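Handout, section B. The chain below has 332 residues.
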Amino acid sequence: MSALLQVTDAKVHFPGAGGWLHAAPPLRAVDGVSFDLAAGETLGVVGESGCGKSTLARAVLGLQPLTAGRVLFDGAPLPDQTRSARMAYARAAQLIFQDPLAALNPRMRIGAALAEPLVTHAPSMSRAERDARVAELLEQVGLEASITRSFPHEVSGGQAQRIGIARAMILRPHLLICDEPVASLDVSIQAQILVLLRRLQADYGVAMLFISHDLSVVRRIAHRVMVMYLGRVVEVGPVGAVFANPRHPYTRALIDAVPRPDPATERGRTRILLIGDLPSPSAPPSGCTFRTRCPLAEPACAQAVPPLAPAGSPGHLVACPVVLRENALTPA
């Protein structure tokens, strides 16, 4: 399966907030991330707040310049800043926001908000054609056509997110960046939105980069999962393999933090607990950035950045030579 999106050694560093007497080190929001994504595939990106997930999404969309590395979309590098190139990429790659109401103009009716991308990107379409496309998308996302006359403050959170999905899909993109799209919704509504996204993916073959801090959500929707810590990838692989046998201690700690519904199982679990605070991305630890919070850390962990290496099952990679050498972790 050929890759629609290829990201190679992507780095996004921001200037440090130093004084006039000395320059502060840069903030390494994304520090050498590589992955690929095929059409019709969902890659879940998980990690604590501040690990670089949203910055990576902005870089993939071309909204945040790369400090180093490259992003290829359908075999070609991200377009330059010419208007025509940017418009073409905007049609192919769309974003679903965490706060759907904040993404809608409060003074614009829902119908006008949904038709706006067509007015901008398909000016040759007649109003009747735009209205037909809007009605088609509303039906696909499970909303009544009458909602087009409403303003954003008149709809619920679940309806607003369905509207946001319809707006992202109305140009029939090839890539969807989903940045915490269900984090602000009730659990029952979350399940409905996940089912909707899977159905749209099956209908249109769209690739999804699904960013979330909720591992239970990622487990339900993603084909593969990529775990980030302090701007780097520490583990990546098929969802089944990573959740059944998490190899990196950080991945294990994230999975252990998810409560189990069975009280007896919950009481009997042996967990890996994170200690200390997340280091500053302006001054990350040398070598393995996770070593200052890792229960398996050795002196050698401070010497070099561990590369991703095969962890057993096909496509499962982990950046922890201690685990690979000693098989130190047992399945969760």
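Note. The chain has a mean pLDDT of 89. Compare this with the example in section A.
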